Amino acid sequence: MSDVKFSKEHEWLKIDGDIATIGITKHATEMLGDIVFVELPDLGANVEKDGNAGVVESTKAASDVYTPISGEVVENNQAIVDDPAKINSDPENEAWFFKLKIKDKAELETLMNKEEYDKFAKESGN
Amino acid sequence: MENLKTALYNLHLKHGAKFVPFAGYQMPIQYSEGIIDEHKYTRTNAGLFDVSHMGQLFIKGENELTDGLEKIFPLDLKNILLNQSKYSFLMNEDACIHDDLIITKVKGGYNIILNAACKNQDYEIIKKLLSNKYEMILNSDLSLVAIQGPKSADILKEIIIGPEKLNFMNGNWFKYKDESIYITRSGYTGEDGYEISISNKKVEELTENLLLKGVKLIGLGARDTLRLEAGLCLYGHDIDLETTPIEANLKWAISKKRLENGGFMGFDKIDSQIKLGTKRLRVGIAPEDRIIAREKTKIYNIDNEIIGEITSGTFGPSVQKPITLGYVQTKYSDLDTKVLLEVRGKKYPAKICKLPFYKKSYVKGAN
Lengths: 126, 367
Fold this sequence. Notes:
The structure holds two protein chains of two kinds. Chain A has four helices and nine strands, in the order E-E-E-H-E-E-E-E-E-H-H-E-H. By secondary structure, chain A is an alpha+beta fold.
C-alpha cells in the first residue's frame, strides 16, 4: 500500500516512488459544498510547495488549490474537469487532481499522517 | 450584536442546516443534501424556504392611503384589485432604489414584503413619506415561509384548502387550524408556489406537516441559484442605491398609466431615462466556457476596454452552465454582443444573452 500524507490546506498525497498523486480531502469537500468547476495546473508546469495549483468553485465561492510539495505536473485528471461533481462523490480516490514528479522528498516530512490530519481537521473546524 | 433567530431555527438545526449570518439573522444556507440537490428538488418537486427574516409591513388605511402610496410607488394602486400583488421598488428622488418589494392590497390597507437588510430603514422612509399619518406595523410576530416548485399546489392543498385556486400574484385569507393566515401565490424562484404568512407559534407545526407531505427544506444558497436562473434581481447586488429601475431593466414593473402622468418618487429621472436612454443597462451574460464569473468581475469589450461589471454570478444547476447578471454600457447591451470576462487574471469569452436563463413556469390561469 502506498503512503498517504495530508496538508493543512486539506490536500491529500499518495506517494508511489517518485510520483505523488494529489487531491483534496473529503473534509475539504464538505466545507466547500457542491463543486461545479475545477481548474488544474498545466501538464509540465513546475509548481512550488504551498503555491497555487488550481481552483475549485462551488455554487457559493471560488477557492484556491495549493500543492503541498514542489514538483513537475506529469498528469492531470481531465475526468474531474468534465464532471466536477465527482470531487464531492469520491474525493480521495477517483477524483484526484494532478500527479507530480517529486522534486524534494524532504518536503514530505512537513506533512501529516491520517491520524494527525483527522485530529487537525476536527480541531480546526475549517 | 447577536444575530436574530427565526421561529424555525430549531427545526433547521434538526434538519442539518449550515447557518450563515444574513442581514442580522442566523439563516440556513443549505441542509445536508447540498445546494444542487436542493435547487433541483425545487425545480422538480417542492421546496420550503424560511424567509421570516424578511419584513412584513402592514399599513392601515383606505382611499387616502392609496393616494399617499401612489406618490411613493410607480403603481396604479387605484386600479389594483383586492388581494392582488405587485412587484415594485422604493426609490429616492433620483429614482435610485432603496429596496425592491411586493405590495398587496388587502382589506383595510396594504401588505408590503421588504428585504431583511432594508426593512427597518424602509419603515422609516415610508413613514416619513406618508407624513406619519397611518398606522404601520412591521410585524415580528409573523413568520413567512415560501413553498416553491411544480408540486406546491398539490401538496399545500392537502393541508389547506383553497390556495390552489389563486392566480399568480394574488392572495387571500385561509384557515389553518384555528388561525387565519394570509397566503399569496408568488415567490422568487421562477416556479409556481406560495408565500405563507403565519404566526411564529404555528409556523413550525405547519412546516412539519408540509415536510411530511414531501416538501423539503431549501436554504439561501439554492434560493440564490434559483432566482438567478430565473433572471431575478437580488437587492444589494443587482440593484441598489446606485441603480435606477430603468438601468436595471425593470421598466416592466412600472405602471404605464403612471408613466404618463408621473407624480411618484423619482418620476423625473425615470421619465428622462426612458426618453434619453441610460448609459448602462442590466443584462444577462453567458460565458462560453464553464468559467464562473462572480460579483465584481470586470467586463471588457473585444478591444479590451472595461465596459461594466458582473453583479451576480454562479453555476446554474438546472441549466447546467454558468450564469451571470451584470451592467454594461448600453451600446454593448444588444443580444449576442461578444464581451470578455476577467477571472483570475485571464479573459474569457462571453455573450450578452436573453433572460431568464431558466424559463419561468408561473400559473396564470388557475381560475
